[in-house]
Amino acid sequence: MSKTVFLVRHAKAIGREKPIPDFERSLTPKGLLRSREMAEYTLKRGFSPDLMISSPASRACETALAFAGVFGYPEDKIIRENIIYDAIDGREIIGAVTDKSDQYHSLFLFGHNPTISEAAGILSPGFDQSIAKAGLVAVKFSHATWPEIETDGGELLFYWEPKKVLR
User: Fold this and answer.
1) How far, CA to CA in Å, does 96 sit from each of 16, 50, 87, 117, 165?
2) Average predicted confidence (pLDDT) for the chain
3) Which of 32, 106, 133, 148 is 20 to 30 A off residue 166, Cα-Cα?
4) Per-residue pLDDT tens for 153-165?
5) CB contact at 8 A, 124 and 117
6) Domains present along the chain, CATH in parentheses
């Protein structure tokens, strides 16, 4: 059975000028709203997760929690992977996917730029954009196992960004 990876960049967070550690920066009210709207848009088009993985940073977790609420996905089942926050390139993020159980076919991963966009480009050769805040890239693979997604490119199903799909 095929695999699909949904790469979601966290939504708009409070600015870096605030005296808050980067890891603890949370979503703005608009960021939280956009997260919910993008999750609703995704769900209405028939997509939902078998598994959700997030950076443990506040803004990524809050984005994942907003999606989970819309999807009816149990919040305590969201896996938090430090490498998604600490990664220095997109390949490291992909490593957070390739070790997952093959019982999952639809995986949502919540992270940060630039590495989330780099991962999208690696998984879908030809994708060379910077994912917008709260944006979502879906890549489908004909493979039956997660480790195989690293070796062959997948098919870009879509790239949705809030200002283009939420009107």
Assistant:
1) 27, 15, 10, 15, 28
2) 94
3) 106
4) 799 999 999 999 8
5) no
6) 3-165 (3.40.50.1240)
